[in-house]
Amino acid sequence: MEKELARKFAACSAQFEEWFNTMTELTTQLEEQHAKRIRRIMANFFELDEELYRPLMREHPDLFPPKIEED
User: In angstroms, rounded to a whole number, what is the distance separating the alpha carbons of residues 52 and 64?
Assistant: First the structure.
């Protein structure tokens, strides 16, 4: 993948991660059955990791800042 397109996908990856974390947090405020259903649907997004982001991270690691581990 050309560098400029890879850069755009990398930016989307950061936005997606923030969205995903926010959505996961918001589901804690829902009735449990509904929350589980939403989280199951959201889990399908992990296919993007395998298909797009992991290969992109291998090809262009400089576009993805290292993760800071939280204690």
Answer: 13
Any domain includes 69: no
What residue has token string 């993805």? 64
Range of the domain at 39: 3-61
Asked which of 7-11, 18-22, 31-35, 46-50 is least confident by mean pLDDT, the reply is 46-50
Q: What is the pTM of this model?
A: 0.68
Helices (H) and strands (E) counted in the chain, each on its own, are: 4, 0
Domains: count for the chain: 1
Token pair, residue 29, equals 């405020």
Residues 6+ apart with CB under 8 A from 57: 63, 64
